[in-house]
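Quick one, T. Sequence first:
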Amino acid sequence: MTRGRVIVVGGGVIGAACAHWLVQEGWQVEVIDRGEFGAACSARNCGLIAPSHVLPLAMPGAIRATLPMLLRLRGNAPLTIRPRLDPNLFSWLARFALSCRADQAWRSAVALHGLLTESRRQYERLATDDGLNAEWTPGGCMVVYDQEQHWEEFAATNAEIGRHCGFEATRIDAGELTRREPALVDGLGGAWLFECDGHLDPGRLMSAWRDLLKRRGVAVREHCELTGIDGAARRATRILTTQGPLEADALVIATGSWTPLLARMLGVRLPIQPGKGYSLTVRRPEMCIRTPMIFESARVAITPFAAALRVGSTMEFAGYDAELRPKRLELLRRAARRYLRSGYDPTGEEPWYGWRPMTPDGLPFIDLAPRYDNVWLAAGHNMIGTSAAPSTGRLICELVSALPPHVDPAPFRLEGRVT
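Structure tokens:
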């Protein structure tokens, strides 16, 4: 017997995960998306499944460390803010600055640790029990440093991660790094290996997840944009879309960086800024890295897939700017040439950009929308959407179904985080 009908608005990785657990719990589920299911950031990110990514951008000293990059208004730094008159951006930056406190940062880290660790476990189960074939590969992720001094300096942060979150990275000196990863150039400072991490091909993940959802009876409606919500007595009863009205007993809003544009419908203006990122996908070289890596000084990630290599990252606060900017792509190529012994082969190069939903404190919003008692939000996952999707989807299912939550939902509520 079905519990009722749920419409999930947003066909990215978060929406797919929500649909997955809701249909398992007995709900009739339909996913709608303004574009195509499984596209955008959900398919073109670097595929890291990283419980290690607990540190929010808003760490103590973040403003001081990034200010030189931000002042290079005409430069091409890994982090840039395009100057513009945008009150929402100014408000977001003020909230970000207030979040750059040690107590707040480590509270966020502890909350993310629970969400990410459970998601990592769920990916193992999805691969083995549900047959979700997405090149799931355990084995860790390395953070690589240019200089030995900076590599050594991370030891203090590593110890703090261990104290607050209960795990630490393994120290890898320059000599061991060369032995482990002969595809890297000589002369690097060292690396830290987070063995808890893994990776997958996010494009294959979304394709496989769509097939699995369809087999379980989930309807997917593409090029269907939400235009309104109808209801009474604090309950939504149907949504209005570009393909007509759809009835629902509950809604889940999983629209990522587009969520602030729904503020009038939802009765809340979430502090989410679109953080524009880029990636390049090329043919896998013969001499290829074995483990995903983050080149710390370049702020660039690189992931090996079965037949491809993906280089990605950079952060550009430029609103919903839709231009593929060559200078931003060149940052990625330059990093690949700097670190890879074989250099960078652009054969079959596939450039891409997309918007990540950035929150000031680094935490997503997983909670009821203020205007309704049956409209749930799952948005604002910053750069960890793929990593956090399974646990987010499961938590949404538990909240919608009035089941005991498997992780503490309190850090992800709206209370105290929106005005």
